[in-house]
Amino acid sequence: MIFCSGRIIINRERIPMKIAESILKSLQQSVLVLDGTLRPVIANPAFFQMFELSPTDLEGKFIPELMLGEICEPSLRVVIESVITNDTNGGGIEAVYSLRSGKRIYLRVNARRIHEDGLPEMILVELRNITKEKETEMQIQELNHALHKHVVTVDAVNQELESYGHSVSHDLRTPLRFVNRIAHVLLHEPGANLSTVAIRQINMILQATTEMGRLIENLLIFSQVSREPIKKRSVDLKRLFQDVVKELEYGQVNRDVAIKIQDLPLCHGDQILLKEVASNLMANAFKFTRRRERAKITIGCTETEDEAIYYIQDNGVGFDMSNSDSLFHPFHKLHESAEFEGTGIGLALVKRIIERHGGRIWAEGEVDKGAVFYFMLGK
User: Fold this and answer.
1) Is a pLDDT exceeding 90 seen at residue 88?
2) In this structure, what is the dihedral angle of CA atoms 38, 44, 47, 48, given to the nearest 10 degrees?
């Protein structure tokens, strides 16, 4: 008998058993050969080592009595017994075996019927220790389960925070309107005879309430974007950017702004939300090119097989790349409010919309040399 890659081949020359045993001993995989009565004929050292057995433990033993009772897999007995009664092979059965030391190991068992003319039939059983694989698999399952619970918890907290933010933002509008109305009454009250200082202070109150009103409206929009379902359709982004530019140009008095909109591929998304993206990014481009005698804004796109990367490039004041991670955080502003107005919500809103579309957004810039905002959407 010759053992070759775990298979027994009995050739016509009847190679001596000693040679077969020598080859068998060299195999690192556990191998056991059974006769037609399911009693051991031969096993290699790897088998004895893995199962903590000695050769005397196998002598004359009926293998199901010796081992299968310890293996927590009822179908394994059926597989091995069916191999001897039918001309079939049994493979890939996984089982758990309890060693004498109390340790449990995971096995993958393959059984093959072997027979040659004039020789008794036997079964070759290959046993591989897959304990490390199974333990790793179970650890991954536990981690995935823990991660799923964590995600569910985080989602619940986020929903609660978004609901709370929406409620608070909504409730703040009423007292804010009251303060604004009182300030207007004081400023225009007949015969109030206000001093210059008082007038300036009331105007500061009006300005503050107006800015707070914008912030509250943006917070409500931000909350709504997180709560409302996305209604996807085919969107012509070039047309959408053209419409946004027309709306923004009405407020650009005495400015020289060169805008170039390249051909943009259609995308699949929520048109209303994507217009919010375009409006915020273009408003930023207009705002931060305000210092330039001739502002330049370019909207373009690069494509791959699966995605399109859109970009808005300007020659404005730019930003320090060391602050790029905080660009899209709510309320975070890289420039002084006195110089560049804003609530600090716009880019956070853009990021939320793009991510809800399954995309991502990032930016590159250099101080006083402009900025480029990129967002990726799947086709």
Assistant:
1) no
2) 100
